[in-house]
Amino acid sequence: MTDPITDMLNQIRNAEAVQKAEVVLPYSRLKFEVAKILMQENFISDVKKVAKGKAKTMKIVLKYENGVPGIAGLKKISKPGQRIYQKHSELKYVKGGYGIAVISTPKGLMTNKDAKKAKLGGEVLCEIW
Question: CA 61, 67, 68 angle in degrees (round to 5)?
Fold first, then answer.
C-alpha cells in the first residue's frame, strides 16, 4: 500500500456499495483526522479509535438515509506521484458548495471552506460530495 488515504477512501466506497454498516481500518493519525472531518461534515456517523494490544485500528460507522449512502462520491486529488498544492485564493468549491475538499495546511487538516476563511493554502488531499 503506497497511499493510505486512497486505500481508506476505496474501502469506504466499497463498503457503501454493499450497504455495510461500518469499516475497520488500520489506525493512523492522518486517516483519523480525515475521518473526523467527514464526521463533522455529516458524511459519516461516527469514527472511533480501537486498540487491541499493540495493534490499533479505527472503526468508521457509515451513514445511510433511506438506503442512500451519506457519501455520493470520493475523489483523490493529490497522489504520491503528483502532489497538488493550492493557495487560498485558488481553492474552489466542490460540486457547487455541496461537497468538501480536505486540505492539508500548516495548521492541520481542514475543509476547503475553513482554509479559505483562514486564508491558508496547502495540499489538496481529496474531494467528497
Answer: 80
pTM (2 d.p.): 0.93
Q: What is the distance of C-alpha 91 from the center of its chain? A: 17
**What is the rounded CA–CA span in Å between residue 61 and residue 79?**
26
**Could you list the residue range(s) of the whole structural domain that residue 52 is in?**
4-69
CATH of the domain at 27: 3.30.1370.30
Cell reading at 86: 493550492
Contacts of 32 (CB under 8 A, 6+ apart): 47, 49, 58
Check if the beta carbon of residue 73 is closer than 8 Å to that of residue 100.
no
Interatomic CA distance for residues 121 and 129, integer angstroms: 21
53 plus 94 within the same structural domain: no
Partnered with residue 51 across adjacent β-strands are 56
Q: Using one digit for the tens of pLDDT, what is the confidence trace for 81-129?
A: 999 999 999 999 999 999 999 999 999 999 999 999 999 999 999 999 9
